[in-house]
Q: What sequence folds into this?
């Protein structure tokens, strides 16, 4: 708790004072609450099998759209409040606190720059997604819980940027990935993994969990060998209009992650 | 325990006095026992992977066939006795206790109205079932534990009711689903999930668990590529004549769910 | 512990005095040790996923080949020493202690009668085995840990005995199954499950665990679509000559089951 | 702790004094630290599903390249510091401490002799690998976490050495396996399992975990039926140049294994 408060104070000092224009609507969460949510999100993503020792989740700061929260370089399941750092749009920490950063942190800064609507991002190597990332078979929406898949999940190939070690370690590589993502909710990365975006931390976690589920389901449906009726774009659009899509599951996932 | 008793008292007040005609046979369970069973059923369905943060299970009240028990809108694994509400055949809670209800509660009321033989209902999005819900390949019974599958598992497509957000949020949609279910023990919902019905809470839980198992097994048998000998309708009919089909597993599932 | 001793005393009274001819070799285990092993075997088979709420394991009594130990009708994971009963070759308990017996206990008595070499039997519905039980594709040995599969795993179809409810509830049905098993280590039961036999409790547990593993592996190998090189009968025969095949894993499984 | 110190003292006595030439670079770990790492590696490999009751991991001694550390014959999950023995290049323990050795310990000695660059070895029967070990379909690299697979994973068939019981129980058999491995990071063993090698204990554990992941992913990609874009040899080579490939996951795996 002590380190949570210390961390929150630290965030507060680093951030611009709240903008008056943003004070309409519900009161913005405190920095301590943001940090606590980030820790829970890290633990849930590990607990639900979206992330293993690698991968990361970030949150755009609700009072400063040019900054975002991201853990220092470490396994998500082990993240504590003291490990949450604040980053700028150059992909560098405002105060590194002597810690190392994820090599691929530019994924977050470049997507936040390209997509003002995006408030939270997951970068993952979820096992069920890699087969689709490497395959010519496109992901399709299997059910209402993954309706956003009906909008299309593009595959971005880092090879289009020349020969690399497959890691998105620079801003130009990340910018290319952001272009590959376009206006979509998720993109697959050939030979690597995926990025998932949403308008809240809860929804980006929910989308990541159900993107995994959808991939497993589609694989099984294909293996059955029959004709498959995927969710239509029109149905999916109606379904996605509900802003609290995954909120009911959050408390459950949180309890499971704490076990 | 206090809230269990309070909840039971509340149920008692809401229900009509026991009908004399129903007093033959074993004594009816008390309301406290019904609530306790409902909580266990919710936890088992979560623990066995039939439900995740979504989905629900209901029980027709044994002393008032026009009412049923269902949790308020929340993740099944977290349900406690205080969360069990009583609903009428209009799909609305008798006393909402200030809580929100599942959007898809009409699934329960409409099936109870259409099927006087049904005493308990599960609505689920079990991952193994969605591939069959979206596929032209019909479910077939793989073994005696899922003998009811031999009777056929129809697929209901909400699209036949026009464009929707895939949720069964109204009585007319639920009535159409009940018609799709017909006289069967289970129906798949295209792009969504399934409903499972039975004559008791233990059996609807058992059928849901083994419908999941059967789906996984059929998928693997299909993948093997040989000729498959499914359970015959005649064998299945004999097997289903045993009313205590899944009772032996209940204590095991209950213990696992409590861990 | 008290019930363990009571149970052991009970077993002792029910069994014939040790035969002098069997006193060569290591000292025979006490009845208390046999009961303890049976409890552990039940728990391991549940913990390793071979059995769920159904299925059973038996052990021929080392000092009376016409009797065998088997739990009363209950979920294997919940078995305690007080639940272990002694059965005769008619498939009936010597002393039922007021408890009900598994309906399919005749599987054990008939196989023990037909196969003097068999000392322990598992009857299971392991999910990975049902696809092979229903398929025309035969099981083949994938690796040395399941070398016994190379000897062949026949499929027995209860339909050859006329129309049934798929349960082996009578001695004649069980005798037919024993004939289907023949001299093999395991047989699949169409629309139902499998039986596995061995010369010791440890080995029948080990074979059951690795039969499950082998089934999963073969399914995956088939799905890969290439040419598969199965373990040859000659290699398997050499491998199976080691009597302590699965003993190293026993302590590990026991610890996992106790968690 | 007492036995850890005792074990360390024992190792120290058995090893040649540190060579002066090796004293440049970071200080070599103490024997107690080596033993502790070996115990953790055993537990992680069991916890992550690479090893079950069988299989083993070894570490070449950093101060005596002609000796290596390996547990006595037992299930990896149960290994404690007192169970770590020191072996010579003849595959025999320097001091057996009255314990039995793994039958297949020669796998380690022969690979260490053939591959001076190798510092750690895993021999496993990981379920996902056996389908590839028996199949004509070669393993291919699915993503950056398993980049080493792009270098090729040869299949070694013990049948080329004549009829055996499938176990690598002699130095000549192990020498043949080492030749099959050649200069690669991993080799599959037909009808048996795999060997994985690396320049450190952390990396051999990491490679074993991600070889398993890669096998599962490739199987799923093949099942999808589309065209698959595997990781290229050029990309993989760049990726493998990072010596701390799997270090971030170590602490996570260690914590999970300790649960």
A:
């Amino acid at each position: 708790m002590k380190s949570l408060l210390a961390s929150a104070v630290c965030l507060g000092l680093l951030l611009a004072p709240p903008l008056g224009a943003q004070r309409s609507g519900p009161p913005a969460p405190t920095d301590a609450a943001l940090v606590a949510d980030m820790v829970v999100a890290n633990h849930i993503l590990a607990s639900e099998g979206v992330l293993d020792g690698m991968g990361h989740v970030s949150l755009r700061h609700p009072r400063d759209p040019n900054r975002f929260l991201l853990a220092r370089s470490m396994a998500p399941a082990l993240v504590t409040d003291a490990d949450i750092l604040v980053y700028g749009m150059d992909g560098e920490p405002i105060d590194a606190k002597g810690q190392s950063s994820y090599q691929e942190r530019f994924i977050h800064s470049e997507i936040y720059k390209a997509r003002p609507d995006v408030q939270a991002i997951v970068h993952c190597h979820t096992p069920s997604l890699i087969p689709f990332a490497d395959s010519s078979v496109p992901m399709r929406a299997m059910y209402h819980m993954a309706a956003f898949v009906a909008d299309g999940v593009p595959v971005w190939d880092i090879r289009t940027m020349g020969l690399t070690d497959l890691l998105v370690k620079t801003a130009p590589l990340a910018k290319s990935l952001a272009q590959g993502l376009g206006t979509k909710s998720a993109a697959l990365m050939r030979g690597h993994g995926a990025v998932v975006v949403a308008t809240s931390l809860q929804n980006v976690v929910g989308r990541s969990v159900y993107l995994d589920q959808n991939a497993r389901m589609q694989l099984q449906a294909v293996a059955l060998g029959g004709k498959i009726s995927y969710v239509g774009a029109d149905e999916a659009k109606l379904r996605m209009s509900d802003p609290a899509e995954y909120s009911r599951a959050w408390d459950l996932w949180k309890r499971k992650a704490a076990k």
